[in-house]
Amino acid sequence: MEKNTYFEQMRSTAIAYNEAQAIREKDREAMKESDDWDGVKAFDEREKNEFPYPFTSGQNKALVEYDRSLRNGADAFEVDDLPWDYELADFVETLRKAGIAAIVVTDESTGLMVGIYGLTNLGCTMNGLKTVTRADDHRFGSKEPERKNGIEFTISEEA
User: Which residues contact 102 (CB under 8 A, 6 or more apart)?
Assistant: First the structure.
């Protein structure tokens, strides 16, 4: 899988947010050390109101799956952990904005059927079975790339 400009921009935004939050968090830690619990409470409220995380949980799940696919050297956009049903719409919309044409779902969780129905309800089309090869992910003791069986879905441009 190749790098994607949209996801790379999301990653840069997330990194900048996390770096700025880490700096702000030092102030919170100082308040805790001095037993300034009113200050901690005010800090937490300000964080929530003035510095919300830039992505929804569904958008973030799409970014995580993108990063994981790159890290594993996958030959397709692999989704080994489908989002919860309430995150799925944002997840699919993020894939659309990124121009992702297809994903391969290798998730084996108990919620898999809910995710499959959710994807199809959002306009994605199940193409059939597909095996993902993870060039940079090897089973313990093996020099061969790991292969994961999955179901390929086409991400339509609109629901």
Answer: 76, 77, 127, 152, 153, 154, 155
pTM listed for this prediction: 0.86
**b vs e for 39-68, b when ≥16 Cβ sit within 10 Å of the residue's Cβ?**
ebeebeeeeeeeeeeebbebbbbbbebbeb
User: Which residue shows structure tokens 């956009």?
Assistant: 77
pLDDT digits (tens, 9 = 90+) for 55-94: 999 999 999 999 999 999 999 999 999 999 999 999 999 9
Residue 108, number of CB atoms within 10 A of its CB: 11
Q: What is the set of domains in the chain, with CATH numbers?
A: 5-50 (no CATH), 57-154 (3.30.110)
Q: What are phi and psi of 156, to 5 degrees?
A: -70, 160
